[in-house]
Amino acid sequence: MSTTPGRLLELDDAEIIAAVDRAIAALAEPRQLLEDIGAALEQNADLRFDAKVDPTGAPWAPLARNTVEYWYAKKYPEGIPGSLLERSRKLRDTLTYNVGDDWLEIGTSRAVPGKSQPEWQVGLLHEFGTAKMPRRGILTADPKRGELGRQDREDVLDVISQALGDAFTAR
Questions:
Q1: Residue 140, Cα to own-chain centre: how many angstroms?
Q2: pTM surpassing 0.70?
Q3: Read out DSSP for 111-161?
Q4: Do residues 84 and 67 make contact, with C-beta atoms less than 8 angstroms apart?
Q5: Which stretches of 8-85 are DSSP H helices?
Q6: Cα 152 from Cα 146, distance rounded (Å)
Q7: Closest Cα partner for 127 from 103, 109, 110, 144?
Q8: Which is nearest to 155 in space by CA: 47, 30, 26, 20?
């Protein structure tokens, strides 16, 4: 360190300067960071299928009795295959994330024919619920406000902290 006229302090530490440069580069090109965030969120959502809970930890509402008795009983008289939200595993199997240079999207691509529109996105129906179907959240604690659940939020912050911490680790 040295002082020069017009400046209070000048830092001349190659290791620190290199670490700051790595942090700036990590934030300037965040694709790997977004990839790691997507992987963490996908893993947490996948665990929720096993536990049958939403991102707040609340259990998913069971199938309505009339759904079981009238719709499923006709289609599956020997009993409903699979478990809640996994009758065919198509919804769970389409859970994925995509990453670009500066964006991340996560969701499902499971669609079914609709009556009032050409198709319905099954994941969104469960994420928000409908007038006739309770919400069974997979990705958000509050989809209207775009809020993650506590564990998802902690995991995303951990991924960010790790990425920035790695940038400052001497190499």
A1: 8
A2: yes
A3: EEE-SSSSEEEHHHHHHH--SSS----SS-SBTTTTBPPHHHHHHHHHHHH
A4: no
A5: 14-28, 31-51, 65-66, 73-75
A6: 12
A7: 144
A8: 47
Nearest Cα neighbor of 42 from 122, 167, 166, 148 is 148
Residues with Cβ within 8 Å of 144's Cβ and at least 6 positions away in sequence, in order, are 128
What is the rounded CA–CA span in Å between residue 105 and residue 25? 22
What are φ and ψ of residue 80, in 5° steps? -70, 125
164 or 58, greater pLDDT:
58
Distant-in-sequence, close-in-space partners of 129: CB < 8 Å, separation ≥ 6: 135, 136
For residues 37 and 81, the model is more confident at 37
Cα 2 to Cα 6, 14, 19, 115, distances in angstroms = 12, 14, 20, 74
> For 62-113, what is each residue's pLDDT tens digit?
988 887 787 777 887 887 777 888 888 899 999 999 999 889 999 998 888 8
CA 30, 33, 35, 40 dihedral sign is negative
